[in-house]
What we know:
The protein is an all-alpha fold and 462 residues long.
Amino acid sequence: MSNANPQMKHIVxxxxxxxxxxxxxxxxxxxxxxxxxxxxxxxxxxxxxxAWSVSLALIGAAIGAxxxxxxxxxxxxxxxxxxxxxxxxxxxxxxxxxxxxxxFIMWRxxxxxxxxxxxxxAPIYIAETAPAHLRGRLGSLQQFAIVIGIFVALLSNYxxxxxxxxxxxxxxxxxxxxxxxxxxxxxxxxIYGYAAWKLPESPRYLIHKGLLxxxxxxxxxxxxxxxxxxxxxxxGSFSNKKPAKFTDLLEVINKKxxxxxxxxxxxxxxxxxxxxxxxxxxxxxxxxxxxxxxxxSDAFLxxxxxxxxxxxxxxxxxxxxxxxxxxxxxxxxxxxxxxxxSTLTICFMSSGGAALSDSAAFVALIAANLYIAFFAAxxxxxMWVMLGEMFNNxxxxxxxxxxxxxxxxxxxxxxxxxxxxxxxxxxGVGPTYAxxxxxxxxxxxxxxxxxxxxxGKQLEDM
Length: 462
């Protein structure tokens, strides 16, 4: 017990420190929820300009995700985190003092680069540091940190609006409430940088670079039994293999190697996680509920409640992912999302574009929060856990970068299209949710056919 507790304390500490990037991921991506309506009014922006203001940050995230693996392989996992923390800090400061839509978009793209890097480097670092029997739970802490970030962002937005009276009202002189919403992010950005600075480097990165003594010290703090054997096993996974390049994935696909189905499975998971429309709730939730008849304060409060449910159900995922396994949770989530999204579609279509009736609004709220619960307990964390562990050592960082790029591009498509599809010239909220329902139904068949269980397997056995 005296040996186990310090080891577990060390493992949890480094995992939590790495997951602060997940917190910023969630905070930075969701803080726009409370500001987008005020931003649109402040700059007299069109639906298309609003769509670009929110969604182009996700292009930055896609770019950050794409290059995060290369940066992590070249300079180390920890330095990659430090770079991400700098990007978050710059974005937080700049987003609160925009002169117009163009420079606001620039600051959001910078934050997006940080989001993309954090989304990739945290699961890589956690997967390479955590022992196999705990990897699912500790990997889920990344998603837990994301949903905490979402919750804190929406809660702080709500509190700021309660103090100011409206997101577009001044709080400090000429500084408006929506500007303060972005400046709150300065605090966790600084904490992330400090925590990353204190982290040990990934032992697999150190071994790959030939720094065996340093790697042994890190492994000894995690698992003091069989350090030399662990080092030899990791070395074996890199031996006689050239450094991974993006062209290696093309060779794998062209030669139809054994790992090709895993690549397609990872891409499918990454894309489908977004095409079910989850981030519409967290990026546009306040506007969505206002558009169907809710007042501003009630819409903000509804978004906070939804994010609280997201938080609680992510805890359930952490408790279940290493017991039930990855694939069963994904199937449960797919079925639950298909049913709840279909219910939302019927509610929104029944209103004919007008405000929901009291009974329809009640059903829609229940369905929306159940939808969030199913996603949070399954697809939210499990997708990131699987991306961190389903690829072998040689291609892991590159494969995750490709999947992260696809995930963020899908996120961009959903985020950009929502205000356009539901705007004055769009198809409406109901038909838009019918699209998300289709992808939720499709995900059931995708998981059943293409996803293989990874619970309890060593990374070197993938």
